[in-house]
Amino acid sequence: MRRLPPLGALRVFEAAARRLSFKAAADELHVTPTAVSHQIKQLEEALDVRLFERGTRQVHLTAAGHQLFPALRDGFDSFERAVDGVRRLKGTRIATLSSTVGFMARRLAPRAGTFRDLHPGWTLRLDATNEVVDLDTEADAAIRYGNGRYADLVVEPLFQDRYAPVCSPALAVAARKDLRAVSLIHFEWGRAGRDETLAPVWRAWLARAGRTDVDAQAGLSFTEEIHAVQATVAGQGVGLLSLALVADELASGLLVQPFELSVESYRYDLVYSPRAASRPATAVLRDWVHREFGGGEKKA
Q1: Looking at residues 65-91, what average pLDDT do you find?
Q2: What DSSP designation does 182 have?
Q3: How far apart are CA 38 and CA 186, in angstroms?
Q4: Can you tell me the distance from the alpha carbon of 208 to that of 165, in angstroms, rounded to the nearest whole number?
Q5: Where is coiled-coil annotated (predicted)?
Q6: Quick check: is 260 in a domain?
Q7: Are residues 85 and 106 in the same domain?
């Protein structure tokens, strides 16, 4: 338990010590000079020390007053900052959107600024995780990658994902036979419970392309898809990558898609709890996500 004098008396002392005037302190605190003098007297009696030397026109701090004043000044400054922070927090509106690490890095983060343009009164909080989050307590909505079946959630389809070989134009890959002369870039699918027939693996693509003379296992392998994207952009080989995740690089010419053949994988959906459907945060996220990613594969 803290052994402190009344907070009101400490506040009066701090104002009087800062201004070295009981009258100026009274004006600041909207009380009378007599009330200030009374509070200071009570504080001095409680501490059993004199805090001020009273003069005709001004007061001066005693040694005890000089010792007490800096701690109270800094404390009240800290109180003021904390209170201002709470007041600002009251007016802050935060919308939390969860998504996979890859989609967050490649698609959401580069477009985050458009959210503020569309909803200037809101703060967008992006939660990157490959884990399934609780959409009642941890986020207002999520962009999920899967078969579109999510029990007890509202599901709004965004676009179907497709995978195709992509590479740097510097590799000069033009025909399927050229794949024998370059490194194939792989990443570990590693998505438990998902249909492996939709896994974007070279073996499946090469089988559909009719190329039995290319080693489907050789090349560079990464545990994370985003690192496979980075290696492909760096010209380290040909990656079988999500066309959604490399859309910007394909549009700019940094990467090319040398073959039309692509394979369908899972789709991206905006999902949220039915109990969150009426939240303003969910509404602004729905508006932004559909504007940015709801136009199909080409837009994404």
Answers
A1: 79
A2: S
A3: 80
A4: 13
A5: none
A6: yes
A7: no
Residue 299 forms part of a structural domain: no
* pLDDT for residue 200: 83
The domain that holds 223 is classified in CATH as 3.40.190.290
Mean pLDDT to the nearest integer, 76-95: 73
Same domain, 51 and 179: no
- CA-based R_g, the chain, Å: 32
pLDDT digits (tens, 9 = 90+) for 22-44: 888 888 888 888 999 999 999 99
State which of 90, 107, 142 marks the end of a domain.
Answer: 90
Q: Which of 240, 245, 230 is nearest to 300 (CA)?
A: 245
Domain assignment of residue 300, yes or no: no
**Sequence-ordered alpha helix ranges (H) in the chain:** 7-19, 22-29, 33-47, 63-90, 101-103, 109-118, 202-209, 225-233, 247-252, 280-293
Residue 194 has pLDDT above 90, yes or no: no
Burial environment of residue 192 by CB neighbours within 10 A (0 to 12, 13 to 18, 19 or more): exposed
Alpha-carbon distance of 85 to 226, in angstroms, equals 38
Query: pTM of the full predicted structure?
Result: 0.64
The total of structural domains in the chain comes to 2
Here the CATH number for the domain that contains residue 56 is: 1.10.10.10
Higher pLDDT, 45 or 200: 45
Cα-based torsion angle of the residue sequence 30, 36, 40, 42 in order, rounded to the nearest 10 degrees? -100
Which residues lie across from 123 on neighbouring strands? Answer: 94
